[in-house]
Automatic annotation (TrEMBL):
UniProt xrefs under Gene3D superfamilies: Glycosidases (3.20.20.80)
SUPFAM superfamilies hit by this protein: (Trans)glycosidases (SSF51445)
Designated name of the protein: Beta-galactosidase trimerisation domain-containing protein
TM stretches of this protein: none
Organism, scientific name: Victivallis lenta
CDD domains: A4_beta-galactosidase_middle_domain
Amino acid sequence: MELPLTALHLDYHIPELSIPAFGRFDMAHYLEQLRRSDAEAVTLFAKDHFGNSFYPTRAGHRHRDLPCDLLGTAAAELRKAGKRVLAYYSLCWEKRAADLHPEWRQLDAENRPFGAEGPWGTVCVNSPYMEELVLPQLREIVEWYPVHGIFIDIAMMNPQGCFCPHCRERFRAETGRELTPGPGQRRFAAESMRRALRKIREAAGSLALCANASWGIGQPVEIADIVDFLVVESQPAHVSSGGYLLQMMQAKYCHADGRPFQIITVRFHGGGWGELSLKSREQLCYEFSLIAAHGGRVCCGDQGDYDGNLDAGTHRTLREAFDFVREREPFLGGRARRHIAVYCGEQGSFPFSVDELPPELPGMAGLLAGLNEQFEFCSSAALLRNLEHYAAVLVPGGTALPEAVRSALDAYVGNGGVLIREPSGVPEGHCYWEDGGETILLRTGYRPLELRDGDRVITGLRPPLVPYAPPGVPWRSSFTPPAPEGVPGAVARPRGAGLLIETAVPFSRNFWRTGDTRLLRAFRRLLEEVGITPAVRISAPGFDVNIVDDGDARERIHFVHYSAERNTMAGYPVIRPHTPFTCRVSLRSRRCPFRATLQPAGRNIPFSREGEELCFELPADTPYVILELEYQPEGEL
Ligand SMILES: [Zn+2]
């Protein structure tokens, strides 16, 4: 199944309460909304977290109040209209199965069920649940309905591990040992999920298979190689993990990996799917644009109400936002230029929760996006595969380097690469960054750097005069203490043909904590000091940029503009309507295009060459414009 640009995820977790659900369900109105939003793919519910199915299942439980074959009717209508249809199936959250079959539940090491206090129970894929319920239901769906694929949600063994009798018995049979908490148990849980997904893959036959959270920053591969495309759920309301930055980071991370991927956001402001608020057109356009500009396919989540009905206003707004990105579809695709790699490493278990993201990652994304830098977020595999193509590699503070990555980076530096490492284990506290005539109060302590022969101090630090101890907090970030002796803030250590740069402070964590714009300037100076010049400069703030090569003869620069209101929703800024403006763009390029066109408007844009840069006046008429540069194939200057 080809993954289309726009998709709608229709969430239908509908419990069976004393008041009947679907009381005023109107199938004609429901189908009208699907036509109204006009997504090219739609995910319809086959079974929800409560264990209720939305089709007349024989193997499972049909929702008590279901008025019709909702899955079958909608799938047939959508298919007739040329849409792609996925059937949603909740795997490990299944209230009904957990209630009726306590022996199927995931248990912790003390034999307590997971999620018992929540609205749905958690069941184990090593129990008979798979053979008695999941696989027979999936076979029904495959056999009965004209769907293109299966969407598996909650492919999740609890991160602390499952110690149910089925897991214990299986582990004993496989290893001859008892199952105990630790790395062995985590490997076992991961392999259990892989085995379950392979069985599902087999049951799905020729249909496409995808799974939510099949890939994401910091997560080991686990099931990513079993599915047909990657799906990452990412919402700006996950504020502590980056807000809007998180969508960009996840998209960059997937793009660096190279497989087709879809990022799911939601129409709701809050992080909860059941919250029925509606983002503005502007906000949805911004989020969709960020995803599309970084090579992703866009999916938006909606939620049916307890009646099963959909909201017409929501689907009208979704249509406008889907159309906005579709207008840019002819100019999407290609390969992002590799300039700076941010190494994320595999920090978590599968599935990795965004709550676990270390602040250094969104902080680094914020720094680089704030500088309009061209960068990617890389897993170990993506980094090792493409290392030679990057001008610099950044390792944010707190990122562990596995042996294979460490030795590859040593070789990369030896061959002329630039590696910038932030320190780990920095104590809390304060210090002052001194550089370029500026003294910036930092909101972390620092790790002293050892100076060796041949090292070059590239900027300075001063410890604070008064050690941080509330209430002695420096009252203003611009406060400059009288000078004690400075210490190295960063050193450049020549290694072979390249440079290893070590900083005494984590810029990323500081930027995440303060958003101090002076840190942008300081970080830019640090990069330029070691020869990493920006791929593009823009005279106006607020752009996310992606330079994409489409073969030898064309490149496209995607500009997505961020304009935020002061008021916030769920802790993150609301996007305001875009006001057109013009700004100056300088692109570092050895080549000279024969034509520059603003897309999707199709307007010719004049340009000039100044030294190593191509200069344009960019009319940012809409929040997402694409500058298309066309070259003669032999167009080297
Ligand atoms: Zn288990």
